[in-house]
Amino acid sequence: MPEKFDAIVVGAGPAGTACAYELAKAGVKVLLLERGEYPGSKNVMGGVLYRQMMEDIIPDFHKEAPIERPIVEQRFMMMDKTSAVTFSYKGMEWAQEPYNNFTVLRAKFDQWFAQKAVELGTLLICETVALECIVQNGKVVGVSTDRPDGDLYADVVVLADGVNSLLAKSLGFHKEFRPDEVALATMEILKLDKKIIEDRFNLEEGQGCTIELFGDATKGILGTGFLYTNKDTLSLGVGTLLSGLIKHKIKPYELLEYVKNHPMIRPYVQGAEPQEYLAHLIPEGGYRSMPKVAGDGVLVVGDAAQLVNAIHREGSNLAMTSGRLAAETIIAARERGDYSEQALDAYRQKLMDSFVGQDMKKYKDATHHFDKFPQYFEQYIPMMNRAASKMLTVDGTPKREKQKQIWREIGPAKEKFKIARDVYRAWKVMK
Amino acid sequence: MSETQAAPAKAATIEEKQYLLRFNADTQSHLHVMDPQVCLTSCPDKICTIFCPAEVYKWEDIRMHVGYEGCHECGSCRIGCPHQNIKWVYPKGGHGIVFRLG
């Protein structure tokens, strides 16, 4: 008779580990499965980890976790081919406790986090792929794995298997994703001296900065680039909808190289030594792409449940919160001995009542809107750059004349009306 | 010309980028083109050879070469193949790409 667990969690990313941690803390006998050599070895993230949701699980984690830098400034660059209009917020309240967010390197952070779950009693087994959910009488009772005699049984299985979400798909919780529901992100980790990073990004010692890149960073395709500061490396990446790469026939690593050599980016990364190149999908279908998240004996968390707020580049915090809420639900179900879909559906309700569900709903049309109307990235960002250039270039032209020129360049009244309509539409999908 | 423009970017090509990585390749592929005839006759763009971030797919005259050893296991080919002609599973436990940092 194979060993039976109270709970099996598939995937030791932020969602799965958060869930296992909370379950182990409550004395639940939990098995955490990871297909990689170690937790984090298959995981990729731009690098921003939000403090609050992590502290909901481990208070004061930043004092011992392998974090890179607390972020004190967030810049937003609206790029054209040889120019950029940049917005920024920098605040010293972010340079001290309680902090807002930190950059992390996932291979390091995920190992640390999983170790914390192990210390509480989680059994972590790496190098093991969960192949299928074992279903008996319509109820998930375990998973089959690629180990010899690899069938494992539990009262409840938590699917935290990431963006590809193969297990939830095989249960019929969602269909295969479309290329416009996922973004393909590529990233390079670039080694650079600490002091040089601080000089280039205008930072005090140990502080960090993030820059989000819009417009020409993705050659006008829907997506964003990013440049984040780690301790002694930079994370430079670019992500676009897979459908955009297909439509425009663009090689993702060539787009990354284009960003790296862009005149607005090159001065930041010049001389930095590439350490690693990484590619990963990001679920960007939003609320409308969310699968069923609770069934008989099974819950779905994190990227596997498509929990990403693409507009605010949030994902790991949604993942951790979903893992924590799944654990709460399982602990309550365990007390009653009822793991039916009806009982576990409390997880869906908790999720939708939390900021996770609220934000997923708030932006449910955003990605789709900007995908359908490419003019925001293709036309309006270059227009913004031309206007700034004209207005700020001193060449003897009276300012009123410059304003008139900018106004004329936008085009006839019809064009202006179109822009006004697009501004209204953007406000509507973001409000 | 300024010094900034003269300095060539490092790891500029996909081959050089892939050299930065550690792989523990299995002896068997986890990626399979289900019907090679579809690539040959029904897929003029062979778009997987463009969007795959690791250049795993290369068209060789009449057949698709699948360099699974360099796969990042992202899933793009499974989702992006216009003919749903790629069978995609995870490599055996402990195999495939091993990220050290990001």
From TrEMBL, chain A:
GO terms assigned for molecular function: oxidoreductase activity
Domain FixC-like C-terminal: 367-431
Keyword Ribonucleoprotein set for record: no
Keywords: FAD, Flavoprotein, Oxidoreductase
Pfam families: ETF-QO_FixC_C, FAD_oxidored
Cofactors demanded by this protein: FAD
InterPro entries for the chain: FAD/NAD-bd_sf, FixC-like, FixC-like_C
PROSITE patterns in the cross-refs: PROKAR_LIPOPROTEIN
Oxidoreductase found in the keyword field: yes
Domain of life: Bacteria
Family membership: Belongs to the ETF-QO/FixC family.
The protein's name: FAD-dependent oxidoreductase
UniProtKB/TrEMBL annotation, chain B:
Domain 4Fe-4S ferredoxin-type: 62-91
NAD in keyword set: no
Name of one Pfam family that matches: Fer4_ETF_QO
Superkingdom classification of source: Bacteria
MF term (GO), any: iron-sulfur cluster binding
InterPro entries linked to this entry: 4Fe4S_Fe-S-bd (IPR017896), 4Fe4S_Fe_S_CS (IPR017900), ETF-QO/FixX_C (IPR007859), Fd_FixX (IPR012206)
Keyword flag Repressor: no
Keywords, in A-Z order: Electron transport, Iron, Iron-sulfur, Metal-binding, Nitrogen fixation, Transport
Protein task: Could be a 3Fe-4S cluster-containing protein.
Family: To ferredoxins from P.putida and C.tartarivorum, ferredoxin I from A.vinelandii, ferredoxin II from D.desulfuricans.
Protein name per the record: Ferredoxin-like protein
Native source species: Cohnella pontilimi
